[in-house]
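User: Sequence in, structure out. Go.
Assistant: Echoing your sequence, followed by the structure tokens.
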Amino acid sequence: MKTAHTLGNEIQRLRTEAGFTLRGFALKVEISAAFLSDIERDRRRPSEAVLRRIAKQLPGTTYEELDALSTTLEQDLQRMVAETPEARQLLRTVFESKRDPREVLRELQKNLSKRPK
């Protein structure tokens, strides 16, 4: 059975290929071993700063490549979706449109940049 390609298992794969122990790598990126274990098991999402430190220490990857594997929303976005039904509807609309979300994002950013502040 093939393991899903997630942020956590990619970090674990790259870490073990580089020869780092869990505890040793956690020290290197200045987080606890328990937190790194949770990240590798996809139970917690690292902050941008932590993910950048992880990417910097792992050969063969970049922050952008690792960030693209994360399928969970940051806590502030989770809160916004929970508190704002329109945010959930926005995601649902993009999903149901079957359009490439990157294309929708580019259009949205373009339109927002044209608006006076």
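User: And one key feature?
Assistant: The chain has a mean pLDDT of 90.
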